[in-house]
Design a protein that fits this description.
heterodimer, A: alpha+beta, 8-stranded mixed beta barrel, two-stranded antiparallel ribbon, 25% helix, elongated, B: 2 domains, 9 helices, 0% strand
């Protein structure tokens, strides 16, 4: 009995000490929350801001609202959403949304600064000037047809002008929404080596 | 009564000291140690990923130039990339005075490959094309340099910070342990019989707080999905942060267990009295 009482007293003391430890934890957590909650929340938000949860991504179908000339949903950056065709030059390239070099390696790219086919504004597309891309673009004639066959519809454009511009001449690629104009360009000079400083641009209107 | 209150206050300070000293010691043996960073880079496959990433960028920039991808053959090897990264790490930890990469070697090799290809095609290069080729070579060497160093300015700042912190911690860590010792002695003087109780409470509370930190990280932060600068850099950063947090969790569990054992011993001593 005496031994049992001793054990009970010992267990009681152990439990009390453990509870006291938890009380200290609670007090410290409370003090930290009171005095440091703002910087801690900011730090957590910053960490979560630079994290990307790829498991939740769902690519929705691209649809066009023809009444209002706008897309109801847009392709994800870096994905292929159309095919660019110029029958006169045997051009048949996948068209991606995005204009990074890593995208242009696989086909034609579309700048995120313009509009999409069917939206009634400027569409800016580009591809490399080498074999398999737009090497023959400088042979294009006024009146030639450029087709964009998108997942949500087909669009045909007729070339009305071509220009050679400096790569920094952004005024040569004006963004507007009054008329649907396709500006397709490639590096120039076409058959040269090295990093080009000019662009060969074709201007086309929607048929 | 006053003695008890003062003891509880000292116990509170002891908890904070144990947490601070333990956390700083963990940092001193991890992120502030070159071998730890090198191990994390190996664990996260950083060297191979940077090499592959750079090769991709080289190819992406070559497609538009009219040059064949062959010009990129053997301009840099994975071993050279690893050596440059290790050199950068040595610089950050004060083992090297200068920041340098194999950039010039890469440029020389690339130039030689380009000259070979032009000669093979029997093409005469105009002065404009030569300028364009020089721009291309500069672009490739910038890609390499930035791929290794990211940004000179920030690396130098990080190197300064690491070296300053290492100097400060050489004094802070022993001071922390001394302060812990002093408080334990004060508690011993105030009440010889209860010192183990206060020590056990401090150890258990410190352990629980480390565990709470790990729970907070798991529930509120998406550290494993961080994407900063590049995939390779992010994977390395994630490996570093997760390793440090796991050390803290292990330390927390160890403190809790030791604290509980001391708790039992203290209860037995009290009960015998």
């Amino acid at each position: 009995m005496h031994k049992k009482e001793k054990n009970n007293t010992m267990m009681k003391a152990t439990i009390i000490n453990t509870v006291v430890a938890f009380v200290y934890v609670f007090i410290i957590v409370l003090l930290v929350t009171l005095f440091f909650s703002a910087p801690i929340s900011r730090a957590i938000s910053l960490i979560n801001l630079v994290s990307i949860d790829t498991s939740k991504k769902v690519q929705s179908e691209v649809k066009i609202d023809l009444e209002h000339n706008t897309l109801e949903s847009y392709p994800e950056y870096g994905t292929r959403y159309a095919t660019l065709k110029i029958d006169d030059l045997d051009v048949d390239l996948p068209l991606y949304f995005g204009d990074k070099l890593s995208i242009l390696r696989y086909g034609a790219g579309q700048s995120a600064t313009g509009y999409f086919p069917g939206e009634g504004g400027t569409i800016i597309c580009m591809a490399h000037n080498t074999n398999g891309y737009l090497k023959r673009l400088q042979e294009i004639k006024i009146g030639a047809k450029i087709k964009i066959e998108a997942t949500y519809g087909n669009f045909t454009y007729t070339v009305y002008d071509t220009k050679i511009v400096d790569q920094t001449d952004f005024a040569a690629l004006p963004i507007q929404k009054e008329k649907e104009i396709l500006m397709l360009f490639t590096c120039w000079p076409i058959n040269s080596f090295g990093t080009a400083t000019h662009r060969f641009v074709t201007y086309s209107t929607l048929d | 009564m006053i003695k008890k209150i003062i003891s509880y206050i000292f116990t509170f300070i002891l908890i904070l000291l144990i947490i601070a000293t333990t956390a700083i010691t963990i940092f001193n043996h991890t992120i502030l140690k070159k071998s730890f960073l090198t191990n994390m880079l190996i664990k996260s496959n950083y060297y191979n990923e940077i090499y592959s990433q750079m090769k991709e960028h080289f190819i992406n920039n070559t497609v538009q130039t009219g040059l064949d991808e062959e010009v990129l053959d053997d301009i840099i090897t994975e071993e050279e990339v690893k050596s440059d990264i290790d050199s950068l790490v040595s610089y950050m930890y004060g083992e090297k005075n200068e920041l340098s990469t194999s950039e010039e070697t890469l440029k020389d090799r690339l130039k030689a490959n380009i000259d070979k290809q032009i000669a093979k095609n029997n093409k005469k290069v105009t002065s404009e094309e030569q300028n364009a080729i020089n721009r291309y070579i500069d672009t490739i060497s910038n890609i390499y340099n930035e791929g290794i160093v990211y940004a000179d300015k920030y690396v130098k700042e990080i190197a300064n910070i690491i070296q300053k912190i290492q100097l400060v911690l050489k004094k802070v860590i022993p001071a922390g342990f001394i302060a812990i010792g002093v408080i334990v002695i004060v508690l011993l003087i105030m009440n010889k019989m209860l010192v183990l109780k206060y020590l056990s409470v401090s150890l258990m509370a410190s352990g629980i707080l480390f565990i709470v930190l790990k729970i907070l990280e798991t529930t509120s932060m998406q550290i494993h999905n961080i994407l900063v600068l590049s995939v390779a850099f992010s994977n390395a950063l994630i490996a570093i942060v997760e390793t440090i947090l796991s050390y803290m969790l292990i330390t927390g569990i160890a403190l809790l267990v030791i604290g509980f054992i001391v708790n039992i011993i203290s209860s037995k001593i009290q009960e015998n009295d």
